[in-house]
Structures are given as C-alpha cells and as structure tokens.
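Long-time lurker. I teach an intro course on protein structure, and each term I like to show students one example going from raw sequence to a predicted 3D structure in token notation. This year I'd like something fresh instead of my usual example. Would anyone be willing to generate the tokens for the chain below so I can use it in lecture? Attribution to the forum is fine with me.
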Amino acid sequence: MRKLDPRIERIAEWVTGKGFSVRFRTAGGNLFFLNQRQIVINIRRSTNHILAMFLHECGHLIGATSASRRTLRRFRYGWGSTPTPDSIWRMGILSEEMEAWHLGHELAGKLKIELDEPSFERAKSRCLESYVRWASKKPLHTPAGLPIKKRSRKW
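-- Reply from a regular --
Happy to contribute to a lecture. Here you go:
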C-alpha cells in the first residue's frame, strides 16, 4: 500500500478518535457504515480526490452521530431505511448527501486540512450530479408500497 498523505492520516486519526475504524482499499467505492462503525476509502485515486471523498464520508459520520437533534433529524433516511414512499425517500437521501458534503468541508477547516478547493468542488459536483440523476428517477412504488403499473399508450 502506498504512503498516505499526512492530511489523510489526520482524518483517519479523527475517525478512530470517534470510535470508528477506517479501511483503505484499492478497488470499489467509498462507504460509511454506521452499524459496523467503519468508513471504507478507495485509495487508487489522486490525493485530492481521496481527501474529498474521505471528508464526505466523515460528513455522514458527523450527521449520523450528531448530538444535535436538528442535524440528526436531517440524517434519518439513510441508504438502509425503508423507501416508502419512494420519491420522498430518494429526496431525503439526496438531502443527506448534500449535507454530508457540507459537514465534511467544515471538518477540513476544523482539522486545519488544506484543500485544493477546485478539486474538492469538482468531486462534490460529480457526485451530486449522479445523486440528482438517481433521485429524480420515476418512483417504482406507490406510497403504499405497491408497484406502479406502466400505462400503455393508445395512439
């Protein structure tokens, strides 16, 4: 495994100080697991990209474990929650993802981590674009959880 940038190590120390573990890997996505108390980070990308993604996953940690009822209330949907009704759940996830980017960026300031701001914003924008595409898909279920039937068009 390659030598990690000291800024990445500083974030990892902060995560472990919160009682979570960090697993670095060279394939797959970046993930936050609340129940397993773990953050998984792919280190095959540039240092700036790793910093952005790691801070974003830390934003999920902050949001999910916040002592602030207001912040915790905004992180109630989660990827493992029940998607009923589908569109409300998707918009909740989208909101959580946006908030995680914001909280991660704030954490960089608190930890005095110097970021390449254009690189951070580029990673954030690319991810948010993919979340928006996913969240805006037509719901697959009614609020009661029943599948939505496709209408046949009569020309």
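Some talking points for your students: The chain has one domain: 6-73+81-135. The mean pLDDT is 83.
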